[in-house]
Amino acid sequence: TSNTRIAPSLLSADFARLGEEVRNVIDAGADWIHFDVMDNHYVPNLTIGPMVCEAIRPHTKALIDVHLMVEPVDDIIPQFAKAGADVITFHPEASRHPDRTLSLIRDHGCKAGLVFNPATPLQWMDYVMDKLDIVLLMSVNPGFGGQSFIPNTLLKLKQAREKIDDWQRDGGQAILLEVDGGVKVNNIAEIRAAGADTFVAGSAIFGQPDYRKVIDDMRREIAR
Ligand code: DX5
Ligand code: ZN
């Protein structure tokens, strides 16, 4: 299914061997690398920044999907663009001017998107549809890997799918719909059915010894 993508989250990879993990998971059939940036301010955890993005960049041609869980947002965007990020998403309530931030990301040559926490309303996207390349719905509260999928996300995915389909039907540009948090082999089919086309999975992939088996199983479930 070429219109869907699997994006393993490096958050659950072995941080002592990141380059190798990136190569292995892409060799195992993954499409994108999901790169979680946490600042111990917007979320209660601290991860990796532009220097690590730059360090993994030579290890793959796959798109690097940078998920910014930081506040403020704007200052770090040029740094990630320079470090080789392809997609940059941020949480709109963490930016003082989300419309400006979306433009800033595109001005730096990257695909731009908004991330919605479980309780964040989808209305944030209504007046910036023309500036979106991707919409990311969190299916857990951001900050940690290995949490359980929040079932209400399925309804929200359907609502986001409808907004995007309406937009595209009226001639708007393509917008991807990504989901992040608690995605597993045993729930990815219903997540796909609710309208997602891009699937982040951290612990489900990096928590298993055979990445290819998990990714194959996920693809089979998506195609059902
Ligand atoms: C959570 C991160 C996710 C996380 C997902 O704040 O944005 O990308 O790594 O991990 P799993 O798939 O284990 O829920
Ligand atoms: Zn993420």
Count, helices:
8
Strand order in space, largest sheet: 1-8-7-6-5-4-3-2
What form results from the Cα inertia axes?
globular
Instruction: Report the end-to-end length measured between terminal Cα atoms.
Output: 10 Å
**Rg result:** 16 Å
CATH topology: TIM Barrel
The string of secondary-structure elements, in order, is: EHEHEHEHEEHEHEHH
* Helical amount: 25-40%
Q: What is the architecture at the second tier of CATH? A: Alpha-Beta Barrel
Please mark out the parts with pLDDT under 50 across 5 or more consecutive residues, or reply none: none
Overall mean pLDDT stands at: 98
Description:
This protein is α/β, with parallel strands linked by helices. It has one domain: TIM Barrel (Alpha-Beta Barrel), CATH 3.20.20. 33% of the residues lie in helices and 19% in strands. The chain has helices at 18-27, 50-56, 77-82, 98-107, 153-169, 188-193, 203-206, 211-223, and strands at residues 5-8, 32-38, 63-69, 87-90, 111-116, 134-138, 176-180, 198-201. The chain has an eight-stranded parallel sheet with strand order 1-8-7-6-5-4-3-2. The radius of gyration is 16 Å and the shape is globular. The N and C termini lie close together (10 Å). The mean pLDDT is 98.
